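[SOLVED] Need 3D model of a two-part complex

Original post:
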Amino acid sequence: MSAVQAFLEGTIRTATPLAFAALGETVVERAGIINIGLEGAIIAGAMGGFTAAGAAGTWAGFAGAGIAGLFVAVVFAFFAIRLRADQIITGTAITLFFLGATATLYRQLYGVTGAALTSPTMPVTPIPLLSSIPVIGQPLFAQPAITYLLYVLIPCVWWCMYRTHFGLGLRASGESAKAAQAAGVPVSRIRFIAVLFGGLLGGIAGGVLVIAQAGSFAEGMSAGRGFIAIAVVVLGRWHPLGVVAAALVFAAASALQYLFQAMGWNIPYQTFLALPYVLTLLGLAGIAGKATAPAALGQWQS
Amino acid sequence: MADITLLADALVRSTPLILAGLAVALAFRGGVFNLGAEGQLMMGAAASAAISIKLAPLMGPSVIVVSLGGGAVAGALWAGIAAELKRRFHVLEIISTIMLNFIAIHLVSFLVRGPMQEPTRIYPQTESLADSARLPIIIPGTRLHAGLILAVLLAVCLHWIFKHTAAGFRVRALGAGPNAARSAGQIDIAVLSWRVFVMSGAIAGLAGAIEVSGVTFALYENISPGYGYTAIAVALIAGLNPLGVIASGVFFGVLETAALALQRDFGIPSSIASMVEALLILVTLALAGLRGYLAFLAPRERTA
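Solution:
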């Protein structure tokens, strides 16, 4: 594989969990809710995926990951929508809780030593014809099947958001909950569904980390991806296609490290580890004033 | 005697929690969602260790003042990055501070394996601090150091500032929402929230400096077992009240010390403590939601 293909492959690999999580959060934020608990859904998904995949195979693993993410979303929805508690603080608490809970469960189930246990991993399934396209064929179409699910999901989310009655209600809830309510849109119910969808995709993102990539669980392995995904939503200006593009740009910038390493540059390895976080900051600073959040984001009134 | 040692251990653990908890309480009071106490604390610890190691042979005991001050400045600068990103580019501090936490971890990892590594170059940590750069022990025979006194004094100071000064009033008005701040008059919201942000970082940086000068006497990668995140629970359970932070800081110090003992003696994972902490935040939220008695948790206006 050439250095360029390694770079493209690295880009898709980094982008996949990020795009899952960010796509879900896009739907949540367009409904007017900001779920900082996304990080918690990802780590819960990773743990759920690890356990279920070990017991019943890779697809069961992704089911387990999704269910774990859904569970996190239900807890968030109860506090943020039902009790109307502050969304930022609720999300922070939920992230902290599930980081602690997954660490505790993992140590309890698999021993305090945290020996590197492995889970089954999803094999690469090349798509005939498409995968033989020069240069981009292999990186894009010789992926684990879950990546193709993402490819299908992207247009579905776009269609649902911009071409359906539900999508209209969703966007109205995010722009002005009061006006939407007055027009007969069931704001709370729509927000609840949006949060569940976001949790489901966040959980699957965690599952991707374990089942399609690492092949094992590690405490805190979400490593801030939930927060990066929230930044990616901002970079993609709250539009599903923009968000996926932003995830790709972000992942490409992160994957530059494969090119640097191939060139044999002598840079401390911590630079590469810190790169995604630095890129997130630069990206957010770069779009200053150009992105407009849904008007009712994080609020109940208006 | 064993009881005294246990109590002292719990108070040693409480000290960074009180300080970082004050940092979070100040920020939240001023309407700044600083989730970056962890990174600010790490940078404070790094700066303090560097100053102590370089200057202790030259300065004698006064190095401790410079070292703690340097830690506070480092924390302020680290928070300053997020504060500037917010002021100039409207970057959400929830994201930027978390990103800076991860960057700080990798930066400290680089420092203790690179330029700051101990002379034999075996362990990923700095050399030990000279005796003159260490905080004095306040109960002989235990690890309890003078940092606890500093933490309590700072809490009392902050309480007094909130209660009795114009600056404290402005910060509270800011936290009550932009409209309240505007009605209170004479408040430049952007400047004030920038100042609160940086001050909050300074306190978190001081927490790291005190941890290095009073407990670990060296800088290494895992110098903070998540003090900056526990601090969020400490501040919220205390209702963002500085005096309350002392009590909740001690409570969480005891909780975490007990969790470590449970892990040691019964093999119960110590991470259970962080579950309990997060659960307590959620319980507080539920109570606030049901009774509406914690005004600061009420939904408020926010900028993207």
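Edit: DSSP finds eleven helices and no strands in chain B.
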